[in-house]
């Protein structure tokens, strides 16, 4: 049924998988045949979500794993946990991320570091551990980094730290793709526009309560769906299916790419 998108035999780590884009991605990967380690700092919820995926009758399998990806040792440990659970690790989806707002005039070094530590540093060293494992095992796997359209153009004010983290992720995607291509390992990014998730809704509520400076022309959030040419935000599953594509043999010649999935937002 999944044809060139089939992921039978893969073993994947998906970070930030207890909800939103990460959960939708873990579910689709398991449906496509992959074994999936769902990683999240919310250990109870991620275990429950993994059980839900198994109970839905997927071809692959799902296991929950508690870890804080801002901690490099924990990030590296997720790859070891995947190998312990499934015998290998052939796919990493770096999805865990935070998107707090603060204007560039008022943000503190601590705020900047908090965003970069999870969104970029944690992702980079998880990718390093995954790639090292793939090289050692001779696996021709892949890494998919969930960036953002903000890596390419700010969607609103107040996201300088976030935008830096996601632009860095796109840059690292290209660098690692270049270095890992001789090993047959592909590294790609996805740049979603607005996606209707719990995190995005909480973000909208925070912005409404305390705008970072001038009223934000938010390009995410239900109230701001009109600037999106397709007239709506994405469902998490629409990002998940893009991950399946990049992880699968359908994308066997795609590396170093950033796939924009934004309903046309960047065209405006
Ligand atoms: N929702 C959007 O509009 C949108 C748009 C572009 C990019 N993105 C990116 O997609 C990714 C997922 O976004 P989402 O909207 O699904 O988020 P979300 O807030 O709904 O879910 C994020 C998940 O990550 C987990 N998490 C957060 N910090 C963690 C940590 N330190 N260690 C482990 N797990 C952690 C949370 O517990 C949660 O389960 C993020 O990287 C985000 O920047 C989202």
Portion of residues in beta strands equals 5-15%
Oligomer: single chain
Through-space gap between termini: 37 Å
Summing up helix and strand content along with how strands pair, one would put the structural category as alpha/beta
CATH class: Alpha Beta
- CATH level 4 superfamily: NAD(P)-binding Rossmann-like Domain
Major sheet: arrangement of strands: 3-2-1-4-5-6-7
**Secondary structure: helix percent:** 40-55%
Number of strands: 7
Mind describing the biggest β-sheet? 7 strands, parallel
**CA radius of gyration:** 17 Å
Q: What's the number of domains?
A: 1
| Bound ligands, each once | nicotinamide-adenine-dinucleotide
The CATH topology corresponds to: Rossmann fold
Average pLDDT over all residues: 94
